[in-house]
Amino acid sequence: MGVGVTELDESKVAALFQGAVSSSLLAFVGLTTAAVGIVDWISAAIAVVASLAGGVAAGLFRTRMVPDVASQLGRIATSVLWGVVVVALTRGSADGWVDLTSWATLFVALALGMTGGIMAAAYLLKKMWARGALRSKAIVVGSTALATELAAELKVRPSNGVDVAAVINSDEFPARGLALRDCVADVVRQTNASRLIVAPFTEESNAVLRVARWAAAEGLAVYVVPRLYETGVGLDSLSPDRVRGYPLVRVQRSAHPFLALKIKRLMDVVVPAAGLMVLSPVLALAALGVRLSSPGPILFRQERVGLHGQPITISKFRSMTVAGDPDSEWSSDSRVTMVGSVLRRTAIDELPQLLSVLRGDMSLVGPRPERPAFVDEFRRVHDDYDDRHRMPVGLTGLAQVVGLVGDTPISERVKYDNLYIDQWSLWGDVQIIIKTIWSIVNQRRYKQQQVELARAVEEMSVSMADDRDLVIDLSNDQLAVYEKSPEVIR
Questions:
Q1: How far is the C-alpha of 365 from the C-alpha of 391, rounded, in Å?
Q2: Least confident of 234-238, 302-306, 441-445
Q3: Between vectors from CA 210 to CA 207 and to CA 212, what angle results, nearest 5°?
Q4: Dihedrals φ, ψ of 75, to 5°?
Q5: Contact (CB, 8 A) for 347 and 248
Q6: Which of 51, 361, 369, 452 has the least C-beta neighbours within 10 A?
Q7: 129 vs 161: CA distance, rounded Å
Q8: Which one-letter DSSP state was computed for residue 489?
Q9: pLDDT on residue 254
Q10: Which residues have C-beta within 8 Å of that of residue 307, sequence separation ≥ 6?
Q11: 3-class SS at 195?
């Protein structure tokens, strides 16, 4: 359930304002280049539109925690260069590709126009923020002195446009048996805060991680001060968000998650539709094989849990003989037919789920859907199990391409499912789809590697639990092992 975060909060309005001002000045400069004869009118229009599209894709017009035009120069240059390249590709032959000076002049003019637009927008925004308009509210979560330092910095500098709604000491909640996420949700609901800043904390707890995931899913802009920031971690020279010099890394990697998710849905329509047509002979042969293998229906339908814990129904080619309650067993290899074994080994039994992807119940890539009974069991054991329902379930996923299938540990699958969601990108989905084909071919080797990995982790965990050794020797050389007492090296 949502907590009342508005779709069009103050920071988004500020971003729209910045984009409008920048676009207006860029368009004026572009039309001026056409008016003075540097390029023709059509080329100028194409350059302006393509440059704006490049800026939007790069997140150039996103309102940052602390406006800093200098840090945006790299993105400005990239966006304008893209605009000039598009003009060259679409209009170069019409102009004869002879006047390189015109292209260079166009690039410089558009770059100056976009830079001037962003500077003008930043100046006007600071004036409005100083007068109390379009200000957004932030919550700071952490337990170190840095949390209060960040909050104080935002409080004493009204030109940043951010008011601190609350500073929450994250370490106190587990100690008192309280839910940190519930507290943050209450503060968001009461103050309509639209930003969450996660500062370093002393207690190692998954509570802060779950708060950050929840806030990002609810539409808040989430910023994290990375560990070891002193070494330069998180200092992106192209687009830093900084407060008092400390780097703030935006949790949502996509500059425009709404647009990116729409493109993901478009992929979920186009790719399965094409796949069903191309694979129709394979589907027909599989259906015939299931029909001849044993009595029963061709398709096996089962209820699973999808996005936000909602029930969905998936279909597979039946690979087992009909008997018993399908929800009563994790697996029953003794009932798998010869045809079913081939279908499972090649993952052809999963292909009917492309229809679920087309309907929107599933996505091509996402956490694999599980049965309700197992979901209830796993969420009691694993605190972050429900976090994997933040995105649509998928036909394949990150956990599957690394070999976490069958009877591999649920804890590992949950970890990889949440890693996929936390670090999601469209290009990442494409990579997972490609790797899925390879993982199907090598699934036995991948599964064996996961078993060996789990065994190695368990063995090293036991070694680390031994309080006598401070260094674990994993090499063939005899490494020096430090002892706590007495302080000697043996």
A1: 10
A2: 234-238
A3: 110
A4: -70, -35
A5: no
A6: 452
A7: 5
A8: B
A9: 56
A10: 389, 391, 392, 393
A11: strand
What does residue 373 show for φ and ψ, rounded to 5 degrees?
A: -60, -40
> Which token pair is 490?
């043996």
Query: What distance in Å separates the CA atoms of residue 94 and residue 43, rounded to the nearest whole number?
Result: 10
Beta-bridge partners for 162: 136
The DSSP annotation for 422-464 comes to HT--HHHHHHHHHHHHHHHHTHHHHHHHHHHHHHHHHHHHHHH
Q: Which helix (H) or strand (E) holds 303?
A: strand 299-305
Yes or no: say if 3 and 189 are a contact pair by the CB < 8 Å rule.
yes
**192 pLDDT more than 60:** yes
Domain 136-252: top CATH class: alpha beta
Enumerate residues 6+ apart whose C-beta is below 8 A from 437: none
CA distance 222 to 196: 5
CB atoms within 10 A of CB 76: 25
How far, in Å, CA of 396 to CA of 440, rounded?
Answer: 11
Residues sharing a CB contact under 8 Å with residue 208, sequence separation 6 or more, in sequence order: 141, 170, 180, 198, 201
Which pLDDT band holds residue 470 (cuts at 50, 70, 90)? Answer: low
Residue 311 contacts residue 372 (beta carbons within 8 Å): yes
DSSP string of 232-277, one letter each residue: TTT--SSS-EEETTEEEEES--SSSHHHHHHHHHHHHHHHHHHHHH
DSSP 360-401: TSSEEESPPPB-HHHHHHHHHH-TTSGGGGGS--EEE-HHHH
Distance CA 49, CA 26 (A): 9
479: DSSP letter: -
Q: Can you give the pLDDT at residue 166?
A: 87
Domain ranges in the chain are 10-130, 136-252, 259-441, 444-490
Kindly indicate the confidence band of residue 268, based on its pLDDT and cuts at 50, 70 and 90: very high
Collect all residues with Cβ–Cβ distance below 8 Å to 228 and sequence separation of at least 6: none
Distances 369 to 192, 392, 408, 413, 458 between C-alpha atoms, Å = 33, 9, 15, 12, 28
Dmax over CA atoms of the chain, in Å, equals 83
